[in-house]
Amino acid sequence: MIILKAFIPQKVLYQNEILQYKLGQELYHRYKNMDIEMVPIKDHHNVEFIKKAPDEKFVEFKKYLVLGVRKSLRPTPNERSADFIVPFTSSGCSAMCTYCYLVCNFFKGSYLRIFVNREEMIKAIQRKIKQVGEEKTYEIGSTSDMVLENTITGNLKWAIEEFGKLEKAKCTFATKFSMVDELLDAKHNGNTQMRISVNPDYIIRKIEIGTSKLHDRINAANSMYKAGYKIGINIAPIILLDNWQDMYRELFELLSNNLEKELKKQLFFELIFMTYGFANDTINKVALKGTIDVFDKDKMRPKGRGKYCYDYGIREDAADFFRQMIHYYFPSSKISYIV
Ligand code: SF4
Fold first, then answer.
1. Mean pLDDT in residue range 11-33
2. Domains in the chain, CATH or no CATH each
3. Residue 186 Cα, ligand 1 centroid: separation in angstroms?
4. How far is the CA of 172 from the centre of ligand 1 (A)?
5. What is the pTM of this model?
């Protein structure tokens, strides 16, 4: 498996509070000993010099790492990939997918932030489990990519093993990264599910900048399946470029030919159509010049404030195409949802 180079931040911004936590001390000393510039900040949400900087600096800020303490830990109900979304150990990402939903929320501040108070997070989950009293699934990667974060902190392996000890709780996460070797011997006890997010090779290379290659993601899914994890496939986001039918047909064929036979029998799909924001457009035009423009005014309609999604008819026709593809290539798979 080809592994992306380990993420070495150009600069580390940290809250002093992190030094009250073992992981915080470890990360602080690791980067200080590497002679990386360490900049104290008051609040990971509100870094003044980043807020004031021009948008062109987006790519530079993606090379930063912010270390902080997460305050809000309450799980919130969800009706799609999990029963609850849990605020977990990271937010943001070092990759630069040109449609990234995080840019809509954090704009230039969608760089990788790591929160060092993981014990408090798992305790919040344990309280929720006690309160609900029945088996539920908890999404731990809704604001970041946990496989990427794991290469820095080991937090995903830690979380998988913590969930492995719990009753009435399953953990789930989606990823566009393939660095799963560390996770293969984790004591997951059947309590973790990985959803590998895929797209046609062309989209990954041109639009999902800085993420793992398609073949590596497929290999990661196979390895995790062999290690006993439940595996799902996210086609996320579906992007309707001019020749989208051919590209996605090829993708299904490739998945069908390369995923383990037994894995395919337990596979489920989540289909998520692209939403694109003004914020993405603003950043892409100045910071990611030359990338493909994924906004198609003929196919998209406004969706809420500053966002666009595919028009009703176009989306429905495309959804039918995906249902047919899944029925043909993966007859025993179920589609969990299309959104
Ligand atoms: S991998 Fe996910 S979080 Fe990272 S830039 Fe891409 S869409 Fe955003």
1. 97
2. 11-338 (3.80.30.30)
3. 25
4. 17
5. 0.96
